[in-house]
């Protein structure tokens, strides 16, 4: 990805008909620094990108390139780095993101979204993660932090659009009692004025294929939880792609009483 960013910057320089030496002099950088950036050997700073584009008459590309640079810095973090001391820190680190976001869009193909989980369901999920990854046992603290984060459902002007695969309702965790209570709670959450909840029915005919589970925070970033780590996307073009994907999945979902009927059916099947 750093090489791709360097290649884009090189194209901008060539379009401006500047040599690496010319651009280096304009930016106050050694030509070798320009070369390293263009060949992926060094990551430019935000200031480098602004100066580069400014001298190359490409100011309209600054925002996109800066986002790409930031994506390189924090694009993918392995779980073992995030969870060195347990799950508490990872839960705590997301609080400010939830507090400042106004528009949430979440697609779930594996688990009930965290903002709609019960204490028992959250405990079952986090305890399973803690055991699987061999982490220090701070599950109770991590659960408390995740539940505290749910206050954004009822406070301020936050708005949530949640799209859940029907299979999530039928592949529970924690046992039948935990899942039954979770499904009842999900119905209650679906009635909140801040929440739009859609369920994508199982079946052979659907408008969009299932994809990886993801959250969109305003139009600022996308987060994806993978098997080996946590993906943060801030590149505007990629965010737009996830937004389009979410819209297609949302069109495949049912809402209101139809969604609650599928949730009740899953509860009855328990």
Can you walk me through this structure?
By secondary structure, the protein is an alpha+beta fold. It folds into two domains: 2-74, lambda repressor-like DNA-binding domains (434 Repressor (Amino-terminal Domain), Orthogonal Bundle); 76-269, Endonuclease, Chain A. It has helices at 2-15, 20-27, 31-38, 46-55, 62-74, 79-82, 88-93, 95-100, 119-133, 139-149, 166-170, 176-190, 236-252, 256-269; strands at residues 76-78, 103-108, 159-165, 195-200, 214-217, 221-225, 229-233, 254-255. An eight-stranded mixed beta sheet has the order 1-7-6-5-2-3-4-8, with helices on both faces. The model has no long low-confidence stretch (mean pLDDT 92).
| Global shape | elongated
CATH hierarchy class name of the largest domain: Alpha Beta
Structural class, from helix and strand content? alpha+beta
Query: N-to-C terminal Cα separation, in Å?
Result: 46 Å
Main attributes of the structure:
270 residues, alpha+beta, 434 Repressor (Amino-terminal Domain), Endonuclease, Chain A, eight-stranded mixed beta sheet, 8 strands, 54% helix, elongated
């Amino acid at each position: 990805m750093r090489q791709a960013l360097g290649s884009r910057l090189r194209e901008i320089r060539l379009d401006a008909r500047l040599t690496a030496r010319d651009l280096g002099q304009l930016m106050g950088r050694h030509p070798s620094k320009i070369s390293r950036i263009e060949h992926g050997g060094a990551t430019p700073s935000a200031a480098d990108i602004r100066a580069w584009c400014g001298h190359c008459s490409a100011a309209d590309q600054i925002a996109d390139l800066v986002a790409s640079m930031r994506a390189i810095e924090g694009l993918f973090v392995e779980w073992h780095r995030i969870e060195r001391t347990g799950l508490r820190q990872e839960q705590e680190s997301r609080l400010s993101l939830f507090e400042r976001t106004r528009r949430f869009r979440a697609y779930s193909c594996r688990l009930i979204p965290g903002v709609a989980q019960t204490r028992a369901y959250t405990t079952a999920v986090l305890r399973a993660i803690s055991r699987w990854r061999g982490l220090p046992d701070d599950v109770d603290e991590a659960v408390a932090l995740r539940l505290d984060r749910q206050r954004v459902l009822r406070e301020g002007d936050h708005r949530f659009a949640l799209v859940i695969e029907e299979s999530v309702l039928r592949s529970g965790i924690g046992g039948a009692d935990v899942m039954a209570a979770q499904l009842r709670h999900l119905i209650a959450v679906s009635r909140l004025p801040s929440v739009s909840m859609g369920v994508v029915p199982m079946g052979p005919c659907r408008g969009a294929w299932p994809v990886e589970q993801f959250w969109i925070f305003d139009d600022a970033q996308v987060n994806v939880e993978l098997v080996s780590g946590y993906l943060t996307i801030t590149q505007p073009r990629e965010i737009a792609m996830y937004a389009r994907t979410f819209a297609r999945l949302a069109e495949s979902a049912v809402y209101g009483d139809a969604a609650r009927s599928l949730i009740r059916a899953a509860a009855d099947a328990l």
